[in-house]
Amino acid sequence: MSTANETLIPRQRWSRRQLWIAAAVVLVLAAGFLAGYLPRRSARAKLAAATPTAPVAPRVSVVKAVAVDAGRLLTLPAGLVANQQTLVYARASGYVNRWLVDIGDRVKKGQLLVQLDTPELDKQLAQARASLSQTIAALAQAEANREYANITARREAALFSRLLISAQENDQAQTQAAVWNANVNAAKANVAAQRATVGQLEQLVSFGKVYAPYDGTITRRLVDVGTLVNAGAGTTTAALFEIAATDPMQAYVDVPQPFAPSVRVGAEAKVAVRNFRGRVFSGRVTRTAGALDPASRTLRTEVDLPNPKGELFAGMYVDVSLDVAVSHQVVRVPSSAIIADARGVHVAVVDGAGKVRLVTVTTGLDNGTTIDLVAGLSGGEQVIAAPPGGLTDGMQVQAVTAG
């Protein structure tokens, strides 16, 4: 029978050499870990310690302010208008009998446009002519009576000279002759007045035919056959036609104050019309307002543009280019560089040390993407193209030249 000692398993024993080897491996691994971790930890600690005390300056895009020549080609928008544009009204009341022109028709001065029926005026004219006949007959009667009175007065005067009649009879005959002389003069005045009335009515009747006031183009027809037309113009009357003279055409441009002194009457102007790409029409400056508009500080300028073929229409949008000059230097910067706030108008300039300097400027012509400055800069400055919010005077930045 086996004993309890025979069932025990013998314990595994480590030798002293094996223990030393294990300890060495552990030491090597620990040394490697410490050699890789500690430098990185130290670098992170230094970076974290340096960040609060050394902030990085923001990067800004800068462009160079460009000084431009005093002389330049100034291009301004404008709209074409007709040289003359008139609403044609009737001078007589009546009904439209017929119209002879329509929209788009070219007409000559004095050409018949519309004919009216004027029944009331026709009746008034007939009555006036009848009254004229009556006054002419009355004049003839007065002249006959005057002749009889004059003969009687001469006869009475001869008899009185021989003392065959009394002085009273002679005076009565002479007075009667004078009365009929006055009656004849009054009858002649009545005839003249009635003839003037007839002439006035004849003129009104003639206004039933409406003629073109000048050479032009019919742009609107506002009546039709049978339309009742009232004489005159105003809120209670309606126009018959609208006529426009389109040769030459006119363009009105508003020249900014810096360029106004260089605008001269007779100077050539180039006009570009979007409907005719690549084609430039030549015009002339015909007049200027002679004073600046106090609201916009611009000079209203009229440019006449020949239009013999009728290619240009009133209302067209055009670009008018004028050769102008300014008496002072102009510096051009991007429009986005302008800072306009309660402090005024400024641009942000970066100096050689990378510090921001806010410069007060006076703006001139706005060209769209760029704007001209007439005061504040001299050209060559590094201007921040798009100043960020919170930009202050003296702020440190990193200037990056815009591509």
Outline the structure in words:
The chain is α+β, with helices and mostly antiparallel strands and 403 residues long. Among the domains are: 62-70 and 329-401, conserved putative lor/sdh protein from methanococcus maripaludis s2 fold, CATH 2.40.420; 73-83 and 247-325, Efflux pump adaptor protein, beta barrel domain (Elongation Factor Tu (Ef-tu), domain 3, Beta Barrel); 119-207. The protein has helices spanning 16-50, 119-161, 167-206; strands at residues 59-64, 66-68, 71-88, 94-99, 106-107, 112-117, 209-211, 216-221, 228-229, 241-256, 268-273, 280-292, 298-305, 317-325, 330-334, 339-341, 344-350, 356-360, 362-366, 370-375, 382-384, 398-401. A hairpin with a 2-residue loop joins strand 16 and strand 17 (344-350). It is rod-shaped, with a radius of gyration of 52 Å. It starts with 15 loop residues before the first helix and ends with a strand.
Structural class: alpha+beta
Query: What name does the CATH topology of the domain at 73-83 and 247-325 carry?
Result: Elongation Factor Tu (Ef-tu), domain 3
The oligomeric state of the chains shown is single chain
What's the overall average pLDDT, rounded? Answer: 84
What is the level 1 CATH name of the domain at 73-83 and 247-325? Mainly Beta
Strand content: 35-45%
Largest sheet: 6 strands, mixed
Helix count from the secondary structure assignment: 3
Give me the count of strands.
Answer: 22
Shape: rod-shaped
| Estimated radius of gyration | 52 Å
User: What is the CATH-assigned architecture of the domain at 73-83 and 247-325?
Assistant: Beta Barrel
H/E series: HEEEEEEHHEEEEEEEEEEEEEEEE
User: What separation lies between the terminal Cα atoms?
Assistant: 103 Å
User: Would you identify the CATH H-level superfamily of the domain at 73-83 and 247-325?
Assistant: Efflux pump adaptor protein, beta barrel domain
Low-confidence stretches: 1-12
Helix content: 25-40%
